[in-house]
Amino acid sequence: MGKEKQIEIEESREEKEESYFFDSTALVNLFEGNTGYLMYSKSPISITLFNLAEVYWVILNKIGEEKAEEAYRLFENAVVKTNGEIIKEAMKFRKAHKNKGFSYADAIGYICAKKNNIKFLTSDSQFEDLENVEFVK
To answer: What is the pLDDT of residue 137?
Structure first.
């Protein structure tokens, strides 16, 4: 019965097709086929250019240039514009949470998600207790 309930929840979630702001870790996990992100694979993706750069860097170092290029092409159309206000607010957020060690890309992405009323999708434990976060273990 527990398994049926879980499948039912996942199916209803896929039907919903909610948009998410994917942090860099979420994008890498999705690209690598991590099953924890399978339910989000059909969701519209939003990212910043900073996330795209971080994903390219991680995959370039972890898997190689060919796969990094593939990931870049796959996610480049998901880039949303950021402005000076988002950048400044993100840096204030990062300073206010200095003890959590947020990266520039994640801080900017989190604020961008909040400003656009999109859930911030991540598996980074620093975000687990924050509002507007969809946390994947």
So the answer is: 85
- The answer to whether 134 and 20 have CB atoms below 8 angstroms apart is yes
- Helix, coil or strand: residue 5: helix
Q: Could you tell me whether strands 45-46 and 119-122 are parallel, antiparallel, or unpaired per DSSP bridges?
A: unpaired
Rounded to a whole number of angstroms, the CA Rg of the chain reads: 15
Condensed to tens digits (0 to 9), the pLDDT of residues 18-39 reads 899 999 999 999 999 999 998 9
pTM equals 0.81
The reply to whether CATH 3.40.50.1010 applies to domain 18-135 is yes
DSSP assignment letter at 43: S
Using alpha carbons only, give the angle 10, 79, 42 rounded to the nearest 5 degrees.
20
Q: Is the pLDDT of residue 13 over 70?
A: no
Inter-residue contact 90 to 105 (CB < 8 Å): no
Nearest of 37, 57, 48 to residue 111 by alpha carbon: 48
Sheet bearing 119-122, strands edge to edge = 45-46, 20-22, 119-122, 133-135
DSSP 93: H
Phi first, then psi, for residue 122 (nearest 5°) are -155, 160
Please provide the average confidence, as pLDDT, over all residues in the chain.
88
